[in-house]
Amino acid sequence: MEQQTEYTFGQKAAAWGVHAFTASGIVAGFWGIVSVANGDFFMAFAMLFLTVVIDGVDGTFARMFKVKEVLPDVSGMTMDYVIDFATYAIIPAFIIYEATKRGIPVEDGGVYMIPEDLRMLSAAVILIVSALYYGKEGMVSRDMYFIGFPVLWNLVAFYLYYVTNLSPMGNFIMVLVFAILHFVPIKYLYPSRTKKFMKLNILNTVVFLVSNFALLVLIEWKYDLPNALVAARVGSVLSFFYFGGMSIYHTWFDPDTKDI
Fold it and tell me: Structural domains in the chain?
């Protein structure tokens, strides 16, 4: 019979610390909700960036401190699902529902990012398809790709708000397009787990996060740095197209990634 390993107080404290770090993502998410309610979209998106960083590194900490072995009765994966659904679906849906184009309030002549009579429908579509996506078997393939566009509505909300300049109806159409893509069997990178080109994928993810956060700060804080703004936009767009291009490659052209 295999003898159960006894872990020290310090090991257990470290494991609980990792779980607390994971759980802090929901606090950042709540701050994001409060920020949207206050009309502070800079802070709302900043909090969503923070949740992405937490979500991106907590798995590394969990493996480093052997959290599964030390605390087998606490499921970090379940915590992740709960927090991810809030920060990748619910809060971005609220942003898309509440946001106006270029942040100009409606009372000052601004228009909603989505046609006013379609705002609730947009939020409902995002939330329903996200719940369905989380519920389906095979959300992640055995070779570690997302099958169908993953629940990344924070990304969609950011690009519609800061990067593109579509009309409200154009934004609504994009919401529908990404909702449909949840169920189209295209293979999307799982940057921290897809093994092929992993170093390049992680590098691109860093460029993606840094350029978009720089774009957020430069636009909201109105810095007069045109070259930096151009560089941030270029980094944002190129890293986005990298993810799209790799999805096409892995789905239809890469002979090593046919297992879905």
Answer: 9-253 (1.20.120)
